[in-house]
Design brief:
mainly alpha; 2 domains
Length: 184
């Protein structure tokens, strides 16, 4: 075997290993981010750029101190959500505003930094990829409702509350407390 043939084989082997690495990384990112992976690729127009962005998100969120809620906190949020849903009949617009506030408060309580909306959605996509689109849809309706020139219909507001509920339920992670012993 001459030097040129050996060099070609080494380069080919390196390319195969790199391709396998990239495919494995892509598979892992697709599994972790679900539909958010496709959205990131669509928005960036380049899978490698999207994968770099998703990897940066995951690294950023790994540095946060995300925590489950205590049982008392979980009960408080659950009660607040029930009251919000009950108010929807009389004040749909107010219920959407309250849902947005409650979800934002829940995210902050869990440890997500509350910055601008798109950054919040990106951070959520790391651990909650199946519901981050609900957050985007609900927020878009809430913004439209707040704009007096583009009032949302009652059906739109109902959809917003349903989207917020999907996110709320996914975020409502409560630490399980040991069962208390009842006196005999």
């Amino acid at each position: 075997m001459n030097t040129t043939t050996l060099l070609i084989l080494v380069v080919a082997a390196i390319l195969v290993v790199a391709a396998v690495f990239l495919m494995r990384r892509r598979t892992l990112l697709r599994a972790q981010f679900g539909p958010e992976y496709d959205r990131a690729v669509r928005e960036s127009g380049n899978p490698l750029r999207a994968e770099a962005e998703l990897g940066a998100r995951a690294k950023r969120v790994k540095g946060y101190h995300i925590r489950p809620l205590s049982s008392d906190e979980g009960d408080r949020y659950t009660t607040a959500w029930r009251l919000l849903q009950a108010r929807f009949v009389d004040d749909p617009s107010g219920a959407v505003t309250e849902a947005d506030r409650l979800v934002t408060d829940l995210m902050a309580r869990r440890g997500y930094p509350m910055t601008e909306f798109e950054r919040q959605a990106e951070d959520l996509s790391v651990d909650h990829p199946s519901v981050v689109n609900h957050y985007r849809e609900a927020h878009q309706i809430a913004v439209r409702q707040a704009d007096s020139r583009q009032a949302a219909s009652t059906e739109d507001l109902r959809q917003a509350v349903m989207h917020y509920r999907a996110l709320f339920q996914d975020l409502l992670e409560v630490v399980s407390s040991p069962q208390r012993r009842q006196p005999a």
